[in-house]
Amino acid sequence: MLGAFFKGLGTTFKYLFKKPVTVQYPEEKRQVHERFRGRHQLNRFENGMERCIGCSLCSAACPSDAILVIPAENNPTAPNSPGERFAARYEINMLRCIFCGYCEDACPTNAITLEHHYELSFYDRKSAIYDKTMLLVPIDKGHGDIPPVLTQMNRRPSPPAQIDL
Amino acid sequence: MTWLDILILLVRCLVLALASATLFAYFTLFERRLLAKFQHRIGPNRAGYIPLPGGKKLFGGWLQPAADAVKLFLKEDVVPAMADKWVYIMAPGFAVVPALIIWVAIPLGTWPDGMGGNWLHYAPIDVGVLYLLAVTSIGVYGIAIAGWASNNKYSMIGGVRASAQVISYELALGFAILAVVMQNSTFRTEEIVTSQGLIWNIIPQFLGFIIFLIASTAEVVRSPFDLVEAEQELVGGYNTEYGSMKFALFFMSEYIKLIAMNAIAVTLFLGGGNFPGIDTLVAAIKTSNGDTIAYAVQGALTLGAFLLKTTALSFLSVWVRASVPRVRYDQLMHLGWKVLLPLGLFNVVMTAVFGVLFPADSLIAKIIMCVVGVIVVVIVSATATPKHAKRGVTLVNPSAGN
Q: What does the alpha-carbon distance between residue B266 and residue B270 come to, in Å, rounded to a whole number?
């Protein structure tokens, strides 16, 4: 009895001199792993065009039905995205999202990716819905060239196969 | 007694009450920070700090108790519809008053006022030790009637558990204190302190000290004996229905009682505010600076030593809380009735026998008692564990071929 008692005391005493495992959160943020699935973002191509072609595959893949995509035809003179369509509305309900990453898998153009941002808190349910302006990265954050298949506007490639970019 | 004496007494009492409340407030911070350290966390360090150059912060969190108090004051104060209203409202008072008045009989130090009195010892009564025992045990009334008045099963069970536990451990506590009284042949707390001299009571009364520590932890229903408020079983125990400042009063009484118990342990076993060399130091100041300054220095030093020893014991309380899981109820009763009570009796007998066999203040007797105490503690702790019930079912090997 006494041995176990002192063993317990010794164990806690050892911890007294160790560095705490917790961090001073708002000032000091814990690093996440490279493949951490946090908030989504909608990516762009190098030239600033949106990667999303409004195919709604992410919405279809979503197990919790968190994604709403309403596509629209591109204006050929000033297209939002390569290809024929783009997402006129793109909304993710962060209260429904389970961060499974299926949308990322389903996306044929790598338009949607789950990033490392995890501070998702809101004061009301309305603001839990992240719309396209919040999800879309700035124009200078684009990467990659537009694949040839999406530049052939007249060909109307359908259905969009997985285009490995 | 003139009106001036009464006024002085009132002011002194106010100072004592406020001091113990402040002690409580900072003990909670001490405990929370220390528990956090034990559990690999940081703990409350935001509310209030002293900024240092270079962005460093000193005493982070020192306003945390104030923030907690403000929060509790501003909370909604609800009286349950079916509660016995007046008893419900009075119960926190019943709990907190005994916790506060324990302190008057504890000599917090030695600051002679030049007229035979002591500024740091409020009530030098003849039966100081009995007073301490009586007041510490009366505190359970508050818990018991709080549990009853809430009209809630959980609260009721919490209150009943508290009464049963305190009654069980009071015997062991009483025997531990009785042995100290026999050792020093006085009931006056200040005489117990002075008669300990350089060899504190913890040496001859080592066994008594261990019994006292365990029994006092149980007496103030603190972890690992906090079955009264076992969250897993009883929600919050007797204080389930209490909120706002009423809850704060229960919380306060519990912690003040804990500190007071540690202070009593310091008084009875660790030489109170005395430390080696204090007498020569005071005598030296007395010859060079006069009586008043010497007394003041003596008061400050003894009070400091007393608080230091109390803090050391409080550290032990927090440490034990961080390390030891809550005991089961049968284990609690086993420990109280079958282990601590016989040990207490043995300790009393041992003290009596040694008191007869050896002359008073015999160093050899004290050392032998210490050795016997250590041996008894080790043997008892190795053997006296609750027996597990024998399994009533005999297991059979499965027969081949089936």
A: 5
ipTM of model = 0.70
Over 80: is that where the pLDDT of B345 sits? yes
Residues 372-401 in B contacting A (C-alpha not used; CB under 8 Å): 377-378, 381-382, 384-385
A9·B323 Cβ contact <8 A = yes
- Cα–Cα distance measured from residue A120 to residue A67, given in angstroms and rounded to the nearest whole number: 16
Q: Is B283 on the interface with A (CB under 8 A)?
A: no
In terms of pLDDT, which residue wins out, B402 or B88? B88
CB B145 within 8 A of CB B158: no
A12:B38 CB<8 A: yes
User: pTM, whole model, 2 decimals?
Assistant: 0.79
Average pLDDT in the A18-36 region? 86
Q: Name the residue in chain B with its Cα closest to that of A13.
A: B38
For residue B356, give the amino acid letter: V
Residue of B319, B378, B384 lying closest to A9 (CB–CB): B319
Count the Cβ atoms, other than its own, within 10 Å of residue B176. Answer: 28
What are the sequence ranges of the domains in chain A?
30-155
Residue range B211-255, pLDDT digits in tens: 999 998 888 888 888 877 777 777 777 888 888 888 888 888 889
Domain range summary for chain B, segments of one domain joined by +: 8-39+78-383
Among B276, B269, B128, B264, residue whose Cα is nearest residue B204: B269
Percent of chain B with pLDDT over 90: 6
Return the SS3 of A157.
Answer: coil
Fold designation for A30-155: Alpha-Beta Plaits (3.30.70)
